[in-house]
Structure formats: C-alpha cells, structure tokens
Request: fold
Amino acid sequence: MKKFVRSKTWISAPSGEEILMMHQTDGSFQGLNECGAFIWNLLETPQDASTLTKAVIDVFDVSAESAQQDVETYLQDLLSSDAIVPHDAV
Amino acid sequence: MPIFESAGLSIESEIDLPGLHKKPLGKRQADLEIKLGIAPNVPKSLNSTGAGWEYDGESVWVRVENVGVFHVPQHGPIIVELSPLATPADAALYLVGTILGIALHLRNKIVVHASAVLVADQAVLFCGASGAGKSTIASALEGRGYTVLSDDLCALDVSDSEVFTYSDGRLLKLWQSSLDGLKIDHRKENAVSNRLEKFYVSHDTKCPDRVPISRIYFLYESNSPDAFEIVNLRTADAAAHIFANAYRPGLIKLLRQEALYLQISASLSSQSELYKLSRIKDFSQLATVLDRLEEHWSM
Reply:
C-alpha cells in the first residue's frame, strides 16, 4: 500500500489539540482539528492509509467506516496542498 | 547614564528617550545599549536592501534623511550617527519606535504593533497599523479607569505555556485631533517631534512588569455607524493577523523567524481569544465602542 510522509513545504506548531500550519513559500495558513492533528503527527514518518485508519480507530470513538473516510479525506487535502508527498518521492 | 525600560528590555542610552520609563538598573548589565558615534560602513555584500535600510545578515542600517544613520546589530550597541543639523532629540523619536522594533526582531523577540491595557489582571491588546486607533482606544479606556500597559509596540513571550506581554510604562503618543476628541488636552506633554502635531500624554505608570494576554483585537475601520462587529478569528486567520501585525512583517521572512511567529500564534490561539473588531472611527462613537468592549469583557 502507498505510503505518505510530510513534505518540507509547510511548517507546523501545536495549538492546544489542534495544529497550525504555514506554507513556507506563499505564507498561507491552515488549521487542522484534533483528528487532523493526530494524523499529521503520525505523518512525521511514512504511513499508509490503512495504518492511519487503525490508529484513528484506536484513539477516537469512531466507526471503522468513518475513520477510513476521515483518513482518506485528510490525505487527499494534505496531498492537494503539498503538505505530504508519496514516500517514494522523498 | 539613564536606564530606560521598554518591551522587557533595560536600555542604557546616551540619548534621552522621552516617553520611556526610567528605571534603576542596579548591578545588572543593560540588555541594550544606545551610543552616539560613527556608524560602521555598510559592507559591499548585502543580504537585502529596501527604501532607507540595508541588512547584511547580522546588522540593519537605517537611514533617515536629516536625522542620521542607525546601525542596529544583532549583538552589541546600537550606534546613532547624527546628520550635521540633527539633534539627539530628532533621533530619539525613531529610537523608541522603528529602531527598537528592529532591535527586538534582531534579538529574536516577538514584537507586534499594538497598544495594551490591563483588564482583570490580564492584558488586552489592540493591534493595527499606524493610525488604526490603538493609542486612542487605550487612552479612552484609561479615562474609564483601566491601566495602560504599553503603546504602539508590544513584545510577546511564552513562559510555562502562557503568552505574556511586557508593560513598559511608556507615555502614549496622540495626535492633536485625538487629544481634542478625548478632551484630554490638559494631559499633553512635549511634542513627539517639532515636525508633527503629535504629543506625549502623561498616564499612570504603576503597572505590573509582565502580564498574561487574555484577548487581542485587530482594529478595522468601518464606514457605517451601525457596523460595530466583533468576530472571533479561527486559528489560521488569527495567525495571518499576528504575522501581518508584526512590528515589521518584512523582517520575519528576512530573519527567518516564521517558526518563532508561528509558535506564538499557535499558543495565542489556544490560550487567548483573538478577534477582528470593526467600528467607525469617529470620536462621537468612541464611548459606544468602549461600552461594547466592556460588555464583551463581561461575557
């Protein structure tokens, strides 16, 4: 299964249970909620969607279906904003 | 030599710094020195230049026509080289504002364009560019019994996961129109400069040294009298406002301080409340604005 990891395009800082991110080139900002922050923290090392989904189920009170959907949405959002890249691209 | 205090720094200065609070230093060495002298030559290889300033990676040179050259290094004293007809008082106006702001940036301090007042033992900041109304609101709140902590410039610091600002007891600077509008002409002291209709205003300087920040309001002007609005800023918007209201936003990128400012923005978002405040800038509406702010603080 394809793995993803954080790119160096964004820097981040914890804001309570959330994460505040800043794009290093264009200076735009993005906030991640608690679940997004949890996924972002795990993506410090290469992760695939299945591993992330299992981790989300373990920590948050959500169904497997909902966790899988959340993880896919976050991965898509993070990919489209260049915050993560496929591991083999690093 | 007199010792002044501002933004959490003790400043030993050969030039009198009107508006700043004087404080005994004791045996401690001053955090920052200001000396009259000959500014070092600008090196040929520069990292960056702009209108009236140059940066070589370690120091900033600021040139002000008919005033002089200010050499602001990362470490060591600020050197002020006066123009032939300039007086130290001409340089002082820049030293307590722009030059101090640059010195704080260079020392990796977080500094925003804001005035602050004490509300229930915590700092409430009003942020905005010059002319946004920061000093006017702070002064008007002082008229209602609130203590002014600082004017125009606030240094921020994180300690034990809490964000603080420093009180410096500096005098407020208000335009004559604001003194008239606030009806406090009797508190007017010397002019900030003989070229400006802006004056120092006396105020109570008894305030704590360092205060946790409870709220920050970013000031916006509205054209409609009934358009008073306070909007809570979400984390990303709040960060954009903090960066935009840094004392010199361009220096954040130049000095690669993005991570520093991001961290303070994140801490502020999680521990304080940040708002966009829109109101009409009219002295006839000022009392209403203060009423609405006090109402907001009581919620």
Remarks:
- Helices of chain B lie at 88-106, 134-142, 176-182, 235-244, 249-254, 258-271, 283-298.
- The first helix of chain B runs from residue 88 to 106.
- Chain B has a mean pLDDT of 89.
